[in-house]
Amino acid sequence: MSFNVAIDGPAGAGKSTIARAVAKKKGFIYVDTGAMYRAMALFMLREGVDPADAAAIADKCKEADITIQYVDGEQVVLLNGENVNAYLRTEEVGNMASTTSAQPAVRTKLVELQQALAAKSDVIMDGRDIGTVVLPHAQVKIYLTASSMVRAKRRYDELTAKGESCNLEKIRQDIEDRDYRDMHRETSPLKQAEDAVLVDTSDMTIEQVIDRIVALIG
Fold it and tell me: 0.85 cut: is pTM over it?
């Protein structure tokens, strides 16, 4: 039987970074669900779909084939056969993903793929509704969070390190707006599963968070 670890939490909590590092330590497959939703959002942007047009999104998502492969230990997200890793982390794609991921048709399609991966492999998966919807029977569930200001500062540092000009307060506001959307959407809202362990990373180093989760897995 496969061993599944579910990590949920708001945007900017460090879920992907932590999940990837824990997967490497434990020898699990890391399934970046956020990257899959971002790939779908990228497809919608490329197709010129209006984010407010639910019917168009539901129709178009049938044309998107999104899969994950591992090349030399690195996760590669394929959108209709194209490696789109380089295009997934822009603000435009992130904002589109927050809108399109709330569409039931989009979620249904991607959840099926995620569950199929988890059924046959030891996986660590992160997202907004992994422990509550995608992997409700995961052996270990974690709700990873941090204050909105801490998350904004991390994002600010990340962007300025790349030479991008940005405003810390605007980033914080964007994060809080996204939190609200994610927690109040009708389909699979972001919430802590009843049996999930809360890990607040506001005052923790990455290494401390990794060690804590590895200890929980055992």
Answer: no
202 is in an annotated binding site: no
- Residue 9 assigned as binding residue: yes
73 is in an annotated binding site: no
- Which of the following CATH numbers is that of domain 1-9+128-218: 3.20.20.105, 3.40.50.970, 3.40.50.300, 3.40.190.10? 3.40.50.300
**131 labeled part of a ligand binding site:** no
- Is 179's pLDDT higher than 90? yes
The mean pLDDT value for 186-215 works out to 94
11 a known binding residue?
Answer: yes
13 labeled part of a ligand binding site:
yes
14 is in an annotated binding site: yes
Domain limits, the chain: 1-9+128-218, 29-121
Residue in the block written with tokens 């099926």: 112
